[in-house]
Design a protein that fits this description.
The complex is a heterotrimer of chains A (701), B (315) and C (317).
Chain A lengths: L7 E14 L2 E14 L3 E5 L6 H8 L7 E10 L2 E2 L5 H7 L4 E4 L3 H4 L6 H12 L4 H14 L5 H5 L8 H13 L5 E5 L7 H18 L2 E6 L2 H7 L2 E6 L2 E7 H6 L4 H9 L49 E2 L11 E2 L45 E14 L9 E14 L3 E5 L6 H8 L7 E6 L2 E2 L5 H7 L3 E4 L13 H11 L5 H14 L16 H13 L5 E5 L7 H18 L2 E6 L2 H7 L2 E6 L2 E7 H6 L4 H9 L39 H5 L4 E5 L2 E4 L16
Parallel strand pairs in A: 3-8, 3-9, 6-7, 7-8, 15-20, 15-21, 18-19, 19-20
Antiparallel strand pairs in A: 1-2, 1-4, 4-5, 9-10, 10-12, 11-12, 13-14, 13-16, 16-17, 21-22, 22-24, 23-24
Helix pairs in contact in A: 4-5, 4-7, 5-7, 7-8, 14-15, 14-16, 15-16, 16-17
Chain B lengths: L36 H11 L1 H18 L1 H4 L32 H37 L1 H16 L2 H11 L4 H28 L2 H8 L4 H37 L11 H9 L11 H30 L1
Helix pairs in contact in B: 1-11, 2-4, 2-11, 4-5, 4-7, 4-9, 4-11, 5-7, 7-9, 8-9, 9-10, 9-11, 10-11
Chain C lengths: L1 H28 L3 H7 L5 H10 L6 H13 L13 H36 L4 H15 L2 H15 L13 H5 L2 H31 L2 H8 L4 H39 L4 H10 L3 H29 L1 H4 L4
Helix pairs in contact in C: 1-13, 5-6, 5-9, 5-11, 5-13, 6-9, 7-9, 7-11, 9-11, 11-12, 11-13, 12-13
The chains are: A alpha/beta (701), B mainly alpha (315), C mainly alpha (317).
Chain lengths: 701, 315, 317
């Protein structure tokens, strides 16, 4: 708390927003009240359908067609925004209230220069002349950390990377020095390393400009580390609100509890299954009677279906800023101190390493029956992209460069990296959807790239892939049964009746109702569709399943279900997984060993525990630090990885990570680092690793 | 992610059942509704007034042309100069007669038959051919695609009317030849559109999943791409009928279509021109209106279908 | 952008080659073959045989094509059967007039269509939208000759407001200088185009209005008018530019019909007269030229598109 009493910038009371479509009316936001003080950051967290984004849009009445704020008041420094007419409201938008939206690519006008887009609010609200506006635009671009701002003024959005675009969006929102900044999922579309930078930026700006910030997100970790107060929303209502530390340490609402427990944590024992929340977030058009959470709540009682609980809490009087309120008839026991939940310390050193050679081979020394079943040998893949130059001389995008590692039978190998790291390409090469430009993929000793025709088709039974986007992975015109059975039909396994039977088995195994057989994808939620994807992958009884971002498109509560399911399936069918994800915590939960990739290169491989306990590569360390954890005690760490990802067409010389590495030196630009051993099964490629490498004679150098 | 946007895909329609779920039942989902998409498409289609009007117009006109002559007999072959140029509303000739004594109303009915037959047949042929070429070019890509598309471009550079006229001056047109020629020039647009759809569908995960299971490109094209491009194909086909009828009418108008005494709307118009200044409007207006109506009907239909399928796709 | 344009030009040349192949194919179908096309309809069989021998028409077809293409490129399009002029000179006479007609029509159609379409999009599903859409459909569905005839009947016969025939003068400027005679032909051609452009503009504007960048602009306090004119318009016009290229064949076909209805002394009328008199060289000459015009027009549209869309103009850094 600051020393002096802060003024209340925003006071929302009883905000209710409804959408009308034809004859249906849906209440997206129901009696939401909160306030934001100057200089503080209030978080609004929830899953899909919770109404959090609608709240943001309702504040300045930017709702899409059919939406209307039907009740309540929104007081900005005393003035009720909802009572203003459109013209007056327009004066306030962009001037006193700035908004940052989620996807910077679509949120910027593609045919207008960055400069003009930033100058626009200045000319509208401050009646600035062209020169004045330009000067201020430069100022604000610098403030937001955009390098070479003068050049950028004349650039177009598509010429910038995602992180830069979001900085531009923030610059636009700040141009007129607003009192309130509304950030609606500002980092969801960005890579983890960039996410940390942007969140740092917002925090810095908040302090410098003493702005009030509303931060809307689905990510509990972000909320835990960046906000002063939090409101948890479910089905259009606030179900719990408190100062952040209080909420995380002594939460009361079952949904908050379930949400926190469903998030895979970097510091928890990965052997424990995740506490998944059954079902999925409700459709605002069809809310259950009584408490909206009651069908999924493990503490639900009979009366929960009858009564809609209201917000009430420790302090008398509603919406006192420091108060803790929740809406539940049977709240969770506050006496359980969650700050002391059992966990593995992040900074403990690993057990003393056995002597290992200084140079790397990835032949790991694990258990006796851990044979290497999938081997990547010096794999490279380049794509041709048209460079747009005068002569169509094609440029090469080096997606994967000289990557070697092996996956052992029965294990889960996690491949981690941000966008452009090449992890997806490797996954696709593993299942022979792409052919390597160089190097080999060996499955069971056989060179996959040499297989053709019938041999290849036969081999395909062993290797399957689960896709990321459950909405694009299934043919909308086919029934679920047909989609799952298609691999069987293609491989001509069994008669039609036998196939149908097998499909029925699979549907049951992934936890879907039997009537799914004849239903279509659009009748199912994202989580359910992902189950279908898993079922389809299992149809041919594969031995290896590559899962490419299997849970990234799902709500947190549903993620846990799918991860648990994947684990069960693995045990039951002795599957080997290659798990590809940008989310380290998800990868950690399922993986035995993890490989970290950056810009096409494998920079570190280690068993899960070792990686998280003692990452050797600065990139791995930076990634881990960039992931916000929903922990009351977690320190807020600043982003270590700075700058933007370089181009994969002309990657930096030497170590590719050097342009963003806080430890980079001259050597890094000249010589490309080789993989060195740091323990059993732990290798990393860095000239100045964070841990001393293991040597052949067993001592430290 | 904004959760509620009209048509947002992320809203799941079903709902978890209200009965208390036991702790061990964590990973089982009991939701999933069911509604045949055909019903829904028809409903959306019916909601689009334009489309319904179009369908009605088309059906009525087809009935007019085929059932009409069965009910209303006229002689369209032999000339009867005595009864030439009778005005409308005269006894026995509701729309008057033309310069050869033929009853205009009857001629309208019979003349329409050729237009409709040629239109439908040419459109059907063009659609099938265009779909095949478009899907193959789009899916398999490479040199084949480049070559096919340049050929399409080449044919499209010369408006169909010109080629058809040149051919018409060389060959004596028969119905079959007309169908083939018109189809041979109309498939281009369908090919372009289907190729466009194929290009975007090709990258979908579920199309790639066919390859993942060892399926061939053909299976992907026939089993997944074409069914999902059906919307484009049907809409394009509908517009093709309109275009074909228009093209045929233009040909007839210029005297290069099927020669008299076969009746055709375009030809009725062209002979009618000579009498514009005499004020014999019934020689011009009925065939012109007939052509316009049938084209209008198909345009409405196609537009309505496009809207209906668009909405469905978004949901 | 240069790369994009160069590639388009290369494609265009390739397409033109195909056009010549098509016309050459048509040429082969002529009764009497190319010999007759050059020598005229009264040539005797001996003359034809001698001609064939002389000009290597008994040589392989590829060689013939090459020779013919060579003629084409040097501007030799043959000799008209009926009018004692070379096809090339006939076309040179007539082309400017047709260009005047078609360009005026397309510009008019674009202007009116874009404006109507934008209004329809903004006042979606209101009265103006429904009525103008329906009217648009009607105009789009009328065959050009019928529309032309109707207009003639209406304005020239019943109400003696405008002449039924276009100006017959030989120079373009004289034609343009007699606007009353130009009104009906231009109107006939343009009305169908208005319907098309307004429909596409409507859906393009609607598509743009639901884009995220519109919401961002609104969050900055941008008002409706500025939103439309400054933000949406440029983005919405992009697909229309592409449409212009696709509209050209329709326009040129329409020109044939319209010129014949109004007796407009342009290339379309030339073509139609040639068709009715079986003047093959002229027919084919005009066909080739129409192909060239379409390709050139498409290319221009592509250039315009590249200029307007910065995503094409500037590559990602």
């Amino acid at each position: 708390m600051r020393g002096e009493p802060s003024e209340t910038v925003l006071e929302v009371s009883g905000l209710t927003t409804r959408f009308r479509r034809g004859s249906r009316t849906v209440t997206a936001v129901d009696s939401v009240s909160f306030s934001v003080l100057r200089g503080e950051c209030v978080g609004l967290v929830g899953e899909s359908g919770s109404g959090k984004s609608t709240v943001a849009l309702s504040l300045t009445r930017l709702l899409p067609a059919g939406g209307r704020v039907e009740a309540g008041s929104v007081r900005l420094n005393g003035r009720d925004l909802l009572a203003l007419d459109e013209a007056a409201l327009r004066q306030i938008r962009g001037d006193e209230v700035g908004t940052v939206f989620q996807d910077p690519m679509s949120a910027l006008n593609p045919t207008m220069t960055i400069g003009r887009q930033i100058m626009e609010p200045l000319r509208l609200h401050r009646h600035a002349s062209s020169a004045q506006a330009r000067a201020r635009a430069l100022e604000v671009l610098e403030l937001c950390g955009v390098p070479r701002p003068t050049e950028r003024l004349a650039s177009y959005p598509h010429q910038l990377s995602g992180g830069l675009r979001q900085r531009v969006m923030i610059a636009i929102a700040l141009a007129c020095e607003p009192r309130l900044l509304i950030a609606d999922e500002p980092t969801t579309a960005l890579d983890v390393s960039i996410q940390a930078q942007i969140l740092d930026l917002i925090e810095d700006l908040r302090e410098r400009l003493s702005m009030a910030v509303i931060l809307i997100t689905h990510d509990l970790g972000v909320v835990a580390t960046r906000t002063d107060r939090v409101m948890v929303m479910y089905a259009g209502r606030i179900v719990e609100r408190a100062p952040t530390a209080e909420l995380l340490g002594r939460l009361r609402h079952p949904y908050t509890e379930a949400l926190i427990e469903a998030v895979p944590r970097l510091d928890r024992d990965r052997r424990q299954p995740l506490q998944a929340i059954p079902g999925h977030p409700p459709d605002p058009a069809q809310l259950p009677s009584g408490c909206a959470f009651q069908p999924r709540c493990r503490y639900a009682q009979a009366e929960c279906t009858d009564v809609v609980p209201v917000l009430g809490g420790t302090t008398a009087g509603a919406a006192a800023p420091d108060g803790h309120e929740w809406s539940c008839l049977h709240p969770v026991d506050p006496m359980v101190d969650r700050t002391r939940a059992p966990r593995v310390a992040v900074t403990e050193p690993p057990p003393a390493p056995a002597p290992a050679p200084a140079t790397a081979t990835v032949a790991d020394t694990a258990g006796p029956d851990a044979e290497e079943i999938l081997v990547f040998e010096r794999l490279s893949k380049s794509f041709t992209v048209s460079s747009g130059g005068v002569l169509p001389r094609p440029a090469q995008l080096r997606a994967v460069s000289d990557v070697s590692f092996a996956v052992r039978r029965g294990e889960t190998f996690g491949l981690v990296g941000e966008s452009g790291s090449g992890k997806t390409t490797i996954g696709r090469m593993a299942v022979a959807l792409e052919r390597p430009s160089d190097g080999r993929v060996l499955w069971d000793g056989e060179d996959m790239s040499r297989l053709r025709g019938r041999d290849l088709r036969g081999r395909r039974r062993d290797l399957q892939l689960v896709y990321q986007d459950p909405y694009a992975a299934l043919d909308p015109r086919r029934t679920i049964g047909a989609s799952i059975g298609e691999p069987l039909a293609i491989q001509r396994i069994g008669s039609r009746a036998q196939r149908r039977e097998r499909v029925r088995e699979l549907i049951h195994e992934v936890g879907l109702p039997p009537r799914a057989l004849d239903s279509h994808p659009h009748d199912f939620s994202g989580g359910q569709r992902q189950r279908v994807g898993l079922a389809r992958a299992l149809a041919l009884n594969p031995r290896l399943v590559v899962a490419d971002e299997p849970v990234s498109a799902l709500d947190v509560s549903v993620q846990a279900q799918i991860l648990n399911l994947m684990r069960r399936l693995q045990e039951r069918h002795s599957l080997t997984y290659v798990l590809i994800s940008h989310d380290l915590s998800v990868v950690r939960y399922l993986s035995d060993r993890i490989g970290v990739m950056y810009l096409g290169k494998l920079v570190e491989v280690a068993p899960s525990e070792a990686l998280f306990a003692q990452p050797a590569h600065p990139y791995t360390h930076g990634l881990m630090r960039a992931i916000p954890q929903p922990d009351a005690v977690a320190a807020r760490s600043r982003a270590e990885i700075f700058g933007e990802p370089p181009s994969a067409i002309s990657p930096p010389s030497g170590c590719r990570f050097r342009t963003r590495c806080p430890l980079a030196q001259e050597l890094c630009a000249e010589v490309e680092p080789e993989l060195r051993s740091f323990g059993p099964g732990h290798v990393a490629a860095c000239h100045f690793p964070l841990v001393t490498p293991a040597t052949a004679d067993g001592g430290d150098r | 992610m904004s959760e509620f946007e009209p048509g947002a895909e992320r809203l799941a329609p079903g709902l978890v059942t209200a009965e208390p779920v036991t702790v061990t039942d964590h990973d089982v989902d009991h939701t999933g509704g069911d509604q045949p998409w055909l019903f829904r498409s028809l409903r959306v289609f019916a909601a689009n007034r334009l489309a319904v009007v179009g369908a009605v117009i088309v059906i009525l006109l087809v009935a007019f042309c085929y059932i009409g002559p069965l009910v209303y007999h006229t002689d369209q072959i032999s000339t009867n100069l005595q009864d030439a140029h009778l005005g409308p509303f005269t006894d026995g000739h509701p729309l008057g007669t033309d310069e050869l004594g033929h009853d205009v109303l009857g001629r309208l009915m019979v003349g329409g038959q050729t237009s409709i037959e040629v239109g439908f047949a040419a459109a059907a042929l063009a659609t099938v051919l265009g779909t095949a070429v478009g899907a193959i070019a789009g899916y398999f890509g490479g040199i084949l695609d480049a070559l096919l598309m340049r050929i399409v471009d080449g044919f499209m550079a010369i408006p169909a009317l010109f080629i058809v006229i040149v051919l018409g001056t060389i060959f004596q047109p028969t119905k079959g030849l007309l169908i083939v020629v018109i189809a041979g020039l109309s498939w281009l647009i369908t090919a372009r559109l289907v190729r466009g759809d194929t290009l975007s569908l090709r990258t979908r995960d579920y199309v790639e999943a066919v390859r993942l299971s060892g399926g061939s490109g053909w299976r992907a094209v026939v089993g997944h791409i074409i069914p999902n491009a059906i919307g484009t194909i049907v809409v394009s086909g509908t517009f093709q009928v309109a275009d074909a009828i228009l093209l045929l009418a233009s040909l007839d108008f210029l005297g290069l279509g099927i020669p008299p005494p076969a009746a055709s709307w375009g030809q009725m118009l062209s002979s009618g021109i000579n009498y514009v200044y005499d004020g014999y409007w019934w020689l011009i207006i009925p065939p012109g209106v007939a052509i316009s109506l049938v084209v209008l009907g198909f345009n409405f239909l196609g537009d309505g279908l496009r809207d209906a399928l668009d909405v469905r796709l978004r949901n | 952008m240069t790369g994009y344009l160069l590639r388009r030009v290369a494609q265009g040349i390739f397409v033109l080659l195909i056009v010549t192949l098509i016309v050459f194919g048509l040429l082969q179908l002529l009764p009497g073959g190319p010999a007759r096309a050059v020598l005229g309809s009264r040539a005797t069989p001996q003359l034809i045989a001698a001609f064939n021998q002389q000009n290597g028409l008994n040589r392989p077809i590829f060689v013939q094509y090459g020779v013919w293409l060579g003629h084409l490129l040097s501007g030799n399009l043959g000799w008209s059967y009926n009018q004692s002029q070379s096809v090339a000179s006939l076309i040179t006479e007539r082309l400017p007039k047709t260009l005047a007609l078609t360009i005026t029509s397309v510009v008019l159609a674009l202007l009116v269509g874009v404006i109507i379409g934008t209004i329809q999009a903004v006042r979606r599903n209101k009265l103006f939208d429904y009525t103008s859409t329906t009217i648009g459909f009607f105009f789009y569905s009328f065959p050009p000759f019928f529309l032309g005839l109707l207009l003639v009947i209406l304005f020239a016969v019943d109400i003696h407001l405008l002449p039924a025939e276009a100006s017959q003068s030989s120079s373009v400027w004289a034609i343009l200088g007699d606007p009353r005679a130009l009104v009906l032909p231009v109107l006939t051609l343009a009305l169908g185009g208005v319907a098309l452009f307004s429909r596409y503009m409507r859906s393009s504007v609607i598509d743009n209005l639901v884009q995220d960048y519109v919401r961002t602009a609104q969050s900055k306090g941008v008002g409706q008018v500025r939103l439309l004119m400054v933000h949406v318009l440029r983005n919405a016009l992009l697909p229309i530019v592409t449409l212009i290229g696709l509209f050209l064949p329709v326009l040129l076909s329409g020109a044939v019909v319209v010129e014949s209805v109004f007796n407009f002394p342009g290339m379309g009328l030339l073509f139609w007269n040639a068709a009715t008199t079986r003047d093959y060289p002229t027919e084919l000459g005009v066909t080739v030229l129409v192909g060239v015009l379409t390709v050139a027009g498409s290319l221009l549209a592509d250039v315009l598109y590249a200029v307007l869309d910065p995503r094409v103009r500037y590559v990602r850094q």
